[in-house]
Amino acid sequence: MTPARRLRNIIGGSAGNLVEWFDWFAYAAFTVYFAPVFFPSGDSTAELLKAAAVFAVGFLMRPVGAWVMGVYSDRRGRKAGLTLSVSLMCAGALIIAVTPGYATIGLAAPALLLLARMMQGLSVGGEYGSSATYLSEMATAKHRGFWSSFQYVTLISGQLLALLLLILLQNTLSEAALESWGWRIPFFVGAALAVIVFWLRRRLDETAAFIATDAREAPKSSALLLMLRHPKEALMVLGLTAGGTVAFYTYTTYLQKFLVNTSGFSKATATEISAAALFVFMLIQPAVGALSDRIGRRPVMVAFGVLGVLFTVPIMTALAGVDSPFLAFLLAMAALVIVSGYTSINAVVKAELFPAHIRALGVALPYAVANALFGGTAEYAALWFKDEGMESAFFWYVTALIGVSLLTYIRMRDTGRNSLIVHAD
C-alpha cells in the first residue's frame, strides 16, 4: 500500500471517529441545558445527577456493544464494524433531537432519552475496538504510536466541536432559547454528519492484517475464546484502563460541570475554559504518541500513573477554589498533560497485546467493562460525593484508581517492542 493511500485510510477512519464522539459528547456538553427538560425538579444538582445516571447507563451498554461488534469486526472486517457503529450513533442522536420534554409526554421523555443513550452506548462500545484496531493495523510499525494517537485526537476533536458549538449557541441564543429548544441543535448536526461518515467509511480499504487472518481461516472470534486463550491480556486491558478512563472523564466531560457547580463560574465561562484546555490536549496527543515510538509505551504510561497519583488531589482541590479563568485553564491543562500519557497510546497498547483474529474483541470488551465501571460512572460518583457533602473524597477515589493502573503498567511488558501486530508495513 502506498503511503498516500495509507494516509487516506487513516484520515478516513479518524474522521468517522470524530463524528462518533461528537454525538457521544454532545450529551455531556449540553446536559446543563436539557436536564430540566427531562428531569424537572428545581434542584440543579439533582437534575444533573439524574442526567448523569442516564449517561452512565449508556456506558453500561458499551460492553454489550464491544462484545457484539468486536466479534462482528473480527469476523466480517474492521471496515464493516466501523460502518455499523456509526449507523447506530446516527439513530441515537436523531431520537434525542426529536424527543419532546417531560412536560409534554411525561415519563416517556426520559425513557426515550434512555433508549437513545443505550443505542449510542452500543455504538461507542463497538467503535473503540474497531477504530483502535483499524488505525493500529493500518499504521506502519515504526510510527504506530504516532498514527494510533489520532484516535484520541479525533475523540477529543469530537468533544471539542461539541463544546465549540455550545459556545456558538451561547453567544447567539438567549439562555431561555437554549433551555427550551437550542440544546436540540447538536443532536440534529450529529445525525446529519453520521450519514456523511457512513458513506466515507464504505470507501475505506480493509487492513492487511485482517485479510491475512481471514485467508488463514483462524479461530472465530468469541468471548469464550478470549477468556480461555487470552485471560491475562484481557485482565491487563481492564487494569490499565481503570485509572486512565476515570481521569479522562473527570477532566473532560465532568470538568465543565465542576467549574459551574463547585468553582462557581458561569456556564459560558466554564465552557470556554474546557474548550481551550481540550484544544491544547488534542494537539499534544501525536507528540506523546511519537515519543512512545522512540522510548517505548511502558515508560509513557508509567509516567501518567506516577504523576496522576501525586497530583490529582492537589489539582482538583485547587480547581475547587479557583476564581481566575486563566488559572483554572492552567490547572486543567496540567491535569490533561498528565492524562496524555494514557490517552495518546492506550489504543495501540491494547491492539499490540492480541493476535489479529481476536484483536477487535480483545481491545473492545475489557476496555468497555472498565469504562462502564469507572469511566461512565465518574461524573455520577463525583456528583454523588458532592451531594453527600464530601466532594473531596472523589479526588481520592480517582487517585486510587490511577494507582491500580500504575501497578499494571509496572508489571506489563512493553508492547511496542513485543507487538503482535503484523502485516502492517
Quick overview of this protein structure:
By secondary structure, the chain is an all-alpha fold.
Task: Flag low-confidence runs.
Answer: none
**Number of E-type strands:** 0
Mean pLDDT: 86
| SS-derived structural category | mainly alpha
Beta-strand content: under 5%
Percentage of residues in helical conformation: over 70%
N- and C-termini, Cα separation: 8 Å
What sequence of helices (H) and strands (E) makes up the elements? HHHHHHHHHHHHHHHHHHHHHH
- The count of helical stretches stands at 22
- Give the overall silhouette: globular
The profile of the biggest β sheet is:
none
The whole-angstrom Rg is: 20 Å
What does this protein structure show overall?
Helix 7 packs across helix 20, helix 14 crosses helix 20 and helix 21 runs antiparallel to helix 22. The chain is globular and about 60 Å long. The termini are close together. The protein is built from 22 helices and no strands. With 425 residues, the protein is an all-alpha fold.
